[in-house]
Design goal:
Elements (H helix, E strand, L loop, with lengths): L3 E4 L7 H4 L8 E6 L6 H10 L8 E3 L3 E4 L17 H5 E6 L7 H20 L7 E3 L10 H5 L3 H16 L32 E5 L3 E5 L8 E6 L3 E8 L2 E4 L5 E3 L5 E6 L1 H4 L7 E5 L3 E5 L8 E6 L3 E8 L2 E4 L5 E3 L5 E6 L8 E5 L4 E5 L8 E6 L3 E8 L2 E4 L5 E3 L3 E3 L1
Parallel strand pairs: 1-4, 2-5, 2-6, 3-5
Antiparallel strand pairs: 3-4, 7-10, 7-13, 8-9, 10-11, 11-12, 14-17, 14-20, 15-16, 17-18, 18-19, 21-24, 21-27, 22-23, 24-25, 25-26
Helix pairs in contact: 4-6
The structure holds zinc ion.
Catalytic activity: Hydrolyzes the link between N-acetylmuramoyl residues and L-amino acid residues in certain cell-wall glycopeptides
Family: Belongs to the N-acetylmuramoyl-L-alanine amidase 2 family.
EC number: 3.5.1.28
Length: 403
């Protein structure tokens, strides 16, 4: 889900009625409208009438509408002209609370992100999140209170606030996004193809981190000049950060390669695997570099064995050269490692806890975890993941050692 953010600010000629005092916010105050009108209609009514009733934001299932500047007070908390709610609280009205239902549920979810972003913007902790009822004797937010869900709403806001602080959620109120990325965990560090891992240094002042491998994907954070990152996958000219936070441009104006992680490219620890070409034509390059001389091409549907990976390119077993390992260009077919039908044993290494997922990839949910030095039998392999014989799920083989 997401929302569209719009301003429909009250005319400054009405400040004396709607928002007479400058304000440095100390609270975010949650309300339910007790009405079934949209955010657009609520705010246009509020700024049009001449009652000393006002609030900063109305949130519905699709929109967030701002009616009062956030640096001015509003009359919403029922605690008088000098009450802390009215003088220091940013009021967030959640629409459609009278009848409830799916539109209300969606409005409340949007409001959770709005309230978290406001707390973050004003450097406030979760305890600054208040109910209207904290300031005066009114049963508001009525639906949340009647359903006994205030603590749960507060927890949801806290989760989003934490995600914003960790760079896993867009902090901007106007962004309209209502997604948070999963927290970093060692099990998420699985390259899409074995062995692809290299380090880059940021050489421009600031570089966006994007949620997906696309230059138009949502910006979820930035990296700064001089910082060094490990890249575990390359796609569309972007590299996936090992931390799991997102993707950064691999453009040579922005990053420069530092070192190759020799442990992942040395031939003695590398098992060959097979890829199928999924783009129409793909260059074969002489060396493991995208700027190296083109010595031939491979075609869609062709299948090749890769015996080494470096810089995002894979060396063809034939010795003809190197091809891109980008997931837009090739897909892994099978591994040619010595796994037999009865499976093989691995020990968990290089991490303290490793996620077990319901499928072979980081997009699958985590079902449980395993711990360092534990030994498991792997009965199938896919996408760099191994299937546990127990049937519990799949683990990243990057954090295992065959025994
Ligand atoms: Zn209220």
């Amino acid at each position: 889900m997401s929302y569209i953010f719009k301003e429909n600010l009250v005319s400054s000629s009405k400040y004396s009625i709607k928002c007479p005092y400058p304000m440095k916010p100390r609270y975010v105050v949650c309300h339910n409208t007790a009405n079934d009108a949209s955010a657009t209609n609520e705010v246009s009514y509020m700024i049009r009438n001449n009652n000393s009733v006002s609030y900063h934001l109305a949130v519905d299932d699709t929109c967030v509408i701002q009616g009062i500047p956030l640096n001015r007070n509003a009359w919403h908390a029922g605690d008088g002209s000098s009450g802390p709610g009215n003088r220091y609280g940013i009021a967030v009205e959640i629409c459609y609370s009278k009848s409830g239902g799916s539109k209300y549920t969606a409005a409340e979810e949007n409001a959770v992100y709005v309230m978290a972003r406001l707390l973050y913007q004003y450097d406030l902790g979760i305890d600054a999140l208040k109910q209207h009822a904290d300031f005066s004797a009114k049963n508001c937010p009525h639906r949340i209170r009647d359903e006994g869900r205030w603590n749960s709403v507060k927890t949801r806001v806290e989760t989003v606030l934490q995600a914003i602080k960790e760079g896993r959620c867009d902090p901007k109120l106007s962004s309209g996004t209502t997604v948070i990325l999963p927290p970093y965990s060692p099990g998420d560090e699985s390259p899409s193809l074995p062995g692809l891992k290299f380090t880059v240094k940021v050489i421009c002042n600031e570089l966006n981190i994007r949620k997906e491998a696309s230059f138009t994907s949502q910006v979820v954070g930035t990296v700064k000049k001089g910082e060094v990152y490990t890249i575990v996958e390359v796609s569309n000219g972007l590299g996936r950060l090992k931390s799991g936070v997102g993707w950064i441009s691999m453009g040579t104006d922005y990053v420069e390669k530092v070192t190759v992680d020799s442990s992942s490219t040395s031939t003695d620890s590398f098992s060959s695997f097979t890829v199928k070409v999924i783009c129409n034509e793909l260059n074969i390059r002489k060396e493991a570099s995208f700027t190296s001389q083109v010595v031939g091409t491979v075609k869609k549907g062709d299948v090749y064995t890769i015996v080494e990976v470096s810089n995002g390119l894979g060396r063809l077993k034939s010795g003809a050269g190197w091809i891109s390992m980008g997931t837009d260009y090739v897909e892994k077919v099978t591994t040619t490692s010595s796994s037999s039908s009865s499976g093989y044993q691995v020990k968990i290494v290089n991490c303290s806890v490793l996620n077990v997922r319901s499928g072979a990839g980081t997009s699958y949910p985590v079902v449980t975890t395993v711990k360092a030095n534990e030994v498991y039998t792997i009965v199938d392999e896919s996408n760099g993941f191994g299937k546990l014989k127990s049937g519990a799920g799949w683990i990243s083989l990057s954090y295992t050692k065959k025994i």
